UniProtKB/TrEMBL annotation:
It comes from Pontibacter diazotrophicus. It comes from the Bacteria. GO terms for molecular function: phosphatidylcholine lysophospholipase activity. It holds the Pfam family Lipase_GDSL_2. SUPFAM superfamilies: SGNH hydrolase. This is Arylesterase. Residues 6-168 form the SGNH hydrolase-type esterase domain. InterPro entries: Ester_Hydrolysis_Enzymes, SGNH_hydro, SGNH_hydro_sf.
Length: 182
C-alpha cells in the first residue's frame, strides 16, 4: 500500500466538519472505489502557515510518502506574510520530503487572496504558487478554492471554510490532478 500525505491547514483538516467530510477523506473513498491501493494521511492543522509546516513536516516523514499534496499558504496570505517568505518555506517543505523520499510525487495546491486586498500583494501571492510549481517541477492545482470562495452555499457560516458540499469541490479539483499520478 502506498501513502498520500495531505499536508495543509484548516481546508485540509476539514474545519468545522466531521473528518469523513474533509476532502482528503473524500479522496480516500474515491481511491478505494476505483480500486487503488493507497492510504490517505490527513496532516491538516487549522491555522497552520508555511513556516509552521516547515517545522511540522519532519514528524510526518516517519511513514513512507509516495505522493505529497502540499496545501499550505492560505493563512500566510490572510496574514500578509511576504511572498518570498512563503515561497522559501514551501520550497523547504518540498526539499525535506524529497530528501527523505527521492521518488515522491508532489502536488502543489495553489491559493489566492481576493483582489480587494490593496496593492500588488494579491497578484504576487497568486503568482508565487505558479512559479514554485514550475521551478520545482511538481503537479499543480491552480486554485484549490476555485468556485467555492465567496459562494455562501459552499461555505460554513463563517464564509471562509468550505462546508461538506464545498469540500466535494476541493476533492474534484484535487482528483483531476492526482489521478494522473496514481
Amino acid at each position: 500500500m502506498k501513502n498520500i500525505l495531505f499536508f495543509g491547514n484548516s481546508l485540509t483538516a476539514g474545519y468545522g466538519l466531521p473528518a469523513a467530510q474533509a476532502y482528503p477523506s473524500l479522496i480516500q473513498a474515491k481511491l478505494t472505489e476505483e480500486g487503488y491501493n493507497y492510504k490517505v494521511i490527513n496532516a491538516g492543522l487549522s491555522g497552520d502557515t508555511s513556516s509552521g509546516g516547515v517545522y511540522r513536516i519532519d514528524r510526518w516523514l516517519n511513514e513512507p510518502v509516495d505522493i505529497l499534496v502540499l496545501a499550505l499558504g492560505a493563512n500566510d496570505g490572510l496574514r500578509g506574510i511576504p511572498t518570498r517568505e512563503t515561497t522559501k518555506n514551501l520550497h523547504e517543505i518540498i526539499r525535506k520530503v524529497r530528501l527523505k523520499y527521492p521518488e515522491v510525487k508532489i502536488i502543489l495546491s495553489g491559493m489566492e487572496i481576493p483582489d480587494i486586498v490593496p496593492g500588488r500583494y494579491a497578484a504576487e501571492f497568486r503568482k508565487l504558487f505558479r512559479e514554485l510549481a514550475l521551478k520545482e517541477n511538481v503537479s499543480f492545482i491552480p486554485f484549490l478554492l476555485e468556485g467555492v470562495v465567496g459562494n455562501r452555499y459552499l461555505n460554513l457560516p463563517d464564509g471562509v471554510h468550505p462546508n461538506a458540499e464545498g469540500q466535494k469541490v476541493l476533492a474534484q479539483h484535487t482528483w483531476k490532478v492526482l489521478k494522473d499520478l496514481l
